[in-house]
Amino acid sequence: MKIEILSAAEEDLVDGHNFYERQAAGLGNYFLDSLYSDIDSLLVYAGIHPVVYGKHRALSKRFPYAIYYTVEANTVRVRSVLDCRRSSSWTRRHLRLA
Fold first, then answer.
1. How far does the chain reach from its first CA to its final CA, in angstroms?
2. Is the pTM of this model over 0.90?
3. Are 67 and 78 in contact (CB under 8 A)?
4. Above 80 in pLDDT, residue 98?
5. pLDDT tens track for 19-70
6. Pairing of strands 51-52, 2-5
7. Contacts 24+ apart (CB under 8 A), 44-53
8. Which of 11, 31, 54, 55 is most buried per CB count within 10 Å?
């Protein structure tokens, strides 16, 4: 099994990093370390998460973020990494574009 992070998800991670870095110096890097750790755990737990809006959704352990992914053959494709504090309509629209 391998993990592929799509460009839309990379952009989501950069946006989250920038948001948290504005809150406190170094917090953005901690955010990325935490989210990449959550993404790495998909090597073991891919497919067990509930399907929400047509994609599996894994919740981050330390930040209010959700990792939306699909499992295709032997690849976990991370499609979006979204802030759970956003409205559900915004999340649905964003996932359609990812």
1. 22
2. yes
3. yes
4. no
5. 999 999 999 999 999 999 999 999 999 999 999 999 999 999 999 999 999 9
6. unpaired
7. 46/1, 46/71, 46/76, 47/71, 53/91, 53/92, 53/95
8. 31
Q: Which residues contact 45 (CB under 8 A, 6 or more apart)?
A: 58
User: Which of 44, 30, 95 lies closest to 67, judged by CA?
Assistant: 95
Instruction: Output the DSSP codes for the chain.
Output: -EEEE-HHHHHHHHHHHHHHHHHSTTHHHHHHHHHHHHHHTHHHHTT-SPEETTEEEEE-SSSSEEEEEEEETTEEEEEEEEETTS-HHHHHHHHHH-
Q: Taking each helix axis as running N to C, give the angle between helix 27-40 and helix 7-23, from 0 to 180 degrees, rounded to the nearest 10.
A: 140
Tell me which architecture the domain covering 2-97 has in CATH: 2-Layer Sandwich (3.30)
- One-character DSSP codes across 50-67: PEETTEEEEE-SSSSEEE
